[in-house]
Design brief:
heterodimer, A: mainly alpha, flat, B: mainly alpha, two-stranded antiparallel sheet, 15 helices
Chain lengths: ~290, ~300
């Protein structure tokens, strides 16, 4: 293939109208330039994790690793093995928070989204407007009253204080509702004629039909919970999360620079892998994410 | 009159009864949502008129928190200035970048498209990897920026990037931009793929000559719902900058050079325990976001005219 036809193939150009080759090439260059700005720090993080200590402190600093080693990961396991609270404890805490928080959110948000997407009833419009409005404030606005509510409930220093609020995350409800609007009404009508009640319709017809949206809610919720350090609610060491433990190591400074680099890789690899797996479902859901004016 | 009143009430009661299953389905989510989002916002609005330090009972002081905020708190004014600067720079830039990159990516073949989507989206989900930027902008000669510039001979001595008032805000802005291609970016790519091809063909018949005209008259108007959604997400994110500032510039940053409204809120809410005052800050932040959203949505309605 010639250069021109290669670019044309990548851009899928022959099928498209209104396209000039020069502009395509310029836009492609722009994309490549900014794409490398986006991806280089991440590639650097991967490289760093495999650098032996002498390469981490070379001057001038080098981007690529010369003699890759897994020493940093071995050190990490060693270090965590010697700590007061074993590594497995942090992992168990993080898994508990992430799994319960994500699964619970998908279930509760879907249950709430179904009536809002498919029916009109007293209060439905007001509730949805409140959900949209709540997309517009940052969690920091509610941080102080949240703390007060938690302490009234006696949830300070329990995982409940992290899990329960994360179950009702308004972006998830919003996306799920927009996605559910696509389910044909005829499908629901048919089930009703067959004698299914609302709960049965929700569970056996609506839920299987919105699987792509489950994955989307997961990819939105998972990184947030995976990366949580317990915020201002959890104080005892053996309830802390993996992220918290790892960030303590990173703050250890020069002596632990190698371990820190390994930690960085561990923290980023999980959400990114999850996104790669669920990408096409996420796109399908996002296509319905619009807001009408 | 009396009869109509009763009729309306009976009607509502019947509606409520018929919809009982919907309320039951929504109850768990709404209960938690109200308890940890809606009611706290209400409490926060209310508390902003009180003096409250968690130890004594709240004392009503009217607008005093707000007057202190705007007239008597120099640091808040710095924070407000920085936040507005963030909002004005990162908001529109990241919003336009989200759209521009989504638009270019949309032209690519499906496989390349998937890879490029990942490339642009990855930073925003990769957890706290932004501390890589700490190494890049590290103040000694092992920092990448310093090492690079020193080898080129542009600077002779390492620059303390993150503890110099001149640079720190700009660096936080760059990193914030790096992280900001998130949900709205995905929504834009997905929205572009749903545009009806026949609209473009019809447009060509009507005299649309190049891709810029196609963009303005066909693509953007058909994507208006996604653009609205993206605007809400980007505005909220650009007004709420705090974690990046704290991670890169420290808390508080040198001479408050990277102080934002949210870091100011954290200062009073979690360190000084002046809850009433912190709530006033939160209320100002919420008002700013809401106002910007209304304004942006008005502007978006003009697209394609």
């Amino acid at each position: 293939m010639t250069m021109t036809s290669k670019v044309r193939a990548i851009f899928g150009m022959p099928k498209k109208l209104n396209r000039s080759f020069t502009v395509s090439l310029m836009l492609f260059a722009l994309l490549a330039l900014f794409g490398s700005f986006m991806v280089l720090p991440l590639i650097y993080a991967v490289n760093n994790a495999f650098k032996p200590l002498d390469e981490l402190f070379i001057f001038p600093p080098r981007f690529w690793v010369n003699n890759p080693t897994t020493e940093n990961f071995a050190d990490l396991i060693n270090l965590m093995g010697n700590s007061w609270v074993p590594l497995s404890r942090y992992i168990a805490n993080t898994l508990l928070i992430t799994l319960v928080g994500t699964a619970g959110h998908i279930l509760l948000a879907s249950a709430a989204a179904y009536p809002l997407a498919k029916y009109r009833f007293p209060g439905s419009k007001v509730l949805f407007t409140i959900v949209i409005l709540s997309l517009m404030f940052s969690p920091h606005v509610t941080a102080i009253p949240n703390y007060m509510v938690m302490s009234w409930l006696g949830w300070i220093n329990t995982h409940t204080s992290i899990i329960v609020p994360s179950l009702a995350f308004s972006l998830g409800l919003f996306l799920m509702k927009q996605f559910m609007e696509q389910i044909p009404d005829a499908l629901l009508e048919a089930a009703k004629i067959d004698g299914a009640n609302e709960y049965r319709i929700f569970w056996s017809i609506v839920m299987p039909n919105v699987k792509p949206a489950w994955l989307t809610l997961m990819i939105l919720q998972f990184p947030a919970l995976w990366g949580t350090d317990g915020g201002s609610f959890i104080y005892s060491e053996n309830l802390k999360t993996l992220h918290y433990a790892l960030s303590q190591i990173v703050q250890g400074g020069i002596a632990r620079a190698g371990v820190g680099a390994a930690v960085a890789l561990l923290l980023m690899i999980v959400p990114i892998t999850l996104f790669i797996i669920s990408q096409s479902s996420v796109m399908q859901t996002m296509a319905t994410s619009g807001m009408k004016d | 009159m009396q009869a109509r009143h009763v009729g309306w009430w009976t009607l509502l009661k019947r509606d409520l009864y018929l919809s009982r299953h919907y309320y039951i389905l929504m109850a768990p989510f709404m209960l938690i949502f109200f308890m940890f989002t809606v009611i706290p916002v209400g409490i926060s609005l209310g508390l902003s008129f009180f003096h409250f330090n968690m130890l004594e009972l709240p004392r009503f002081i009217g607008w005093q928190n707000y007057s202190r905020l705007f007239l008597n708190d120099d640091v808040f004014l710095i924070a407000l200035k920085n936040t507005l600067l963030f909002a004005v720079i990162t908001g529109p830039v990241s919003y336009i970048a989200c759209f521009l990159f989504a638009w270019i990516i949309n032209e690519l073949s499906p496989k390349v498209r998937a890879v490029m989507t990942l490339v642009f989206y990855a930073p925003s989900i990769s957890g706290n990897v932004f501390f890589i930027w700490l190494i890049i902008f590290s103040g000694d000669s092992y920092g990448y920026m310093n090492g690079f510039l020193m080898r080129l001979g542009i600077i002779l001595e390492p620059v303390q990037w993150l503890s110099n008032e001149k640079y720190v805000l700009a660096i936080v802005i760059i990193v914030q931009l790096w992280l900001s291609l998130g949900t709205s970016f995905l929504a834009f790519i997905a929205g572009l793929q749903t545009i009806d091809r026949s609209l473009v063909e019809a447009g060509t018949v009507d005299g649309i000559k190049n891709r810029w005209q196609e963009l303005w008259f066909i693509t953007l108007p058909s994507m208006r719902p996604q653009l609205m959604f993206g605007a809400v997400m980007q505005i909220t994110a650009s007004f709420a900058v705090a974690e990046i500032s704290i991670a890169l510039a420290g808390f508080p940053s040198v001479n408050y050079a990277a102080h934002t409204v949210v870091t100011h809120l954290m200062d009073f809410g979690t360190i000084r325990f002046e809850m009433g005052y912190a709530s006033a800050i939160a209320t100002v932040l919420f008002a700013l976001m809401l106002g910007t959203n209304v304004l942006t949505q008005k502007m978006l309605r003009k697209i394609g005219e």
